[in-house]
Write a structure and sequence with these properties.
Structural class: mainly beta
């Protein structure tokens, strides 16, 4: 995930969230602390991956002056007993080993004059947000995978919002709060439809007539090539890996009659399906030489290709970036993750070949957020 959210409701009267954002382009991490109930003055922030070892190689650091200024220096929490997180536990009561800490301000009594004070306006329920940015390498976090390992965020600070007596509320001393990571949300697989027609072949017979049946989409085109985009997304903002799968499914003719995948043919020869290009290309072909894999001696009938790359960085795609110099629809036209290209290269044998007859089938794909979230979709 490129954005992590940690929720904490330590006692009645105080609730807040901490959002950590991975800024991969400039090697920094932004922390946003939003108080949704009550008030707090944040003095220090700690990170833990939930393991028993101190895994991050960075040094504890402190901001010099206002955290928004961004200037930091080394810091040793053990020399600052009012700000360490010793003894803090998770929601199950297990002790947490903290990997690295960031000091924001010296501890003190909750005060609106502090640059790290945030509260919720009781009249409007409008929350305040404290935001600061840290170089990831200062924290010993070298990549997105290590960022995604963050399991707990701890805060030291003061608050006058505890409504329960005897639980360390009020403004006396510096309190310890622990926020636990929200679970990863699965990506959302988009839905798309594509139509290609044998009327688009050099020897085809173009027309503007559809088959007029009840199964969408109708064939009103004369194109043997079609392109579009699957609108896949991730609630956590993660870059998605999109890949095709086999077999094709839900094969029917224009009247809704089910067709067995083994009965699909071209010129009377069965069509074989194979994934290539790291599951970014699905080829339906006639095997002319009884080989176990598609090769130059086989006859391509239909090809489906899908782009796969960082949604925020189109040039990271699998096939290329932009339309080629001839302006043709080629894999180079696939520029964003989820773009697809369907190319009909040869005729399929239709149950009724003297009418406007269509064959429908689903091409299946998966979207993976790299953090255990996988969803399935169809084209």
């Amino acid at each position: 995930m490129t954005m992590r959210t940690f929720i904490c409701t330590p006692y009645p009267g105080l609730a807040f969230t901490v959002t950590a954002i991975w800024n991969g382009d400039d090697g920094t991490i932004t922390f946003e602390i939003e108080v949704t109930e009550g008030n707090m003055d944040v003095n220090a922030l700690y990170l833990s991956d939930g393991n028993e070892n101190d895994d991050y190689a960075g040094s504890d650091i402190q901001f010099i002056g206002d955290p928004s200024a961004g200037t930091t220096a080394d810091w040793n929490p053990e020399d600052d007993p009012n700000l360490n997180m010793n003894g803090a536990t998770d929601s199950d009561g297990n002790p947490i080993v903290w990997d690295v800490g960031v000091k924001l301000t010296d501890p003190g009594i909750t005060s609106e004059d502090s640059p790290t004070f945030i509260d919720t306006d009781p009249a409007t329920d409008s929350p305040d947000t404290l935001e600061f940015t840290v170089d990831a390498d200062e924290l010993g976090i070298d990549n997105l995978a290590e960022f995604n390992d963050i399991m707990f965020i701890g805060l030291r600070g003061t608050s006058s919002s505890n409504t329960n007596e005897g639980e360390g509320g009020g403004t006396e001393g510096s309190l310890k709060w622990v926020g636990e990571s929200e679970p990863n949300q699965v990506p959302i697989a988009g839905l798309a439809q594509s139509v290609v027609s044998e009327e688009g072949f050099d020897d085809g017979i173009p027309d503007g007539v559809g088959y007029g049946g009840s199964f969408p989409p109708d064939d009103l085109t004369n194109n043997a090539i079609d392109t579009g985009s699957i609108d896949a997304s991730d609630p956590d903002g993660d870059p998605l890996s999109i890949q095709l799968t086999t077999p094709i499914t839900n094969i029917v003719d224009s009247d809704g009659n089910v067709i067995n995948i083994n009965d699909l043919s071209s010129g009377g020869d069965p069509i074989v399906w194979e994934l290539t290009d790291d599951n970014h290309t699905l080829i339906g072909y006639v095997d002319n030489n009884s080989s176990t894999m598609f090769d130059a001696g086989d006859t391509e009938v239909i090809k489906i290709q899908i782009e796969d790359g960082d949604l925020s960085n189109p040039s990271s795609g699998y096939f290329g970036n932009g339309v080629d110099t001839n302006g043709d629809l080629t894999p180079d036209a696939l520029i964003n993750s989820g773009d697809y290209l369907v190319t009909l290269l040869g005729p399929l044998d239709h149950p009724l070949n003297s009418v406007e007859d269509l064959i429908f089938f689903d091409v299946n794909y998966t979207v993976d957020d790299g953090n255990g979230g996988v969803s399935n979709g169809t084209l």
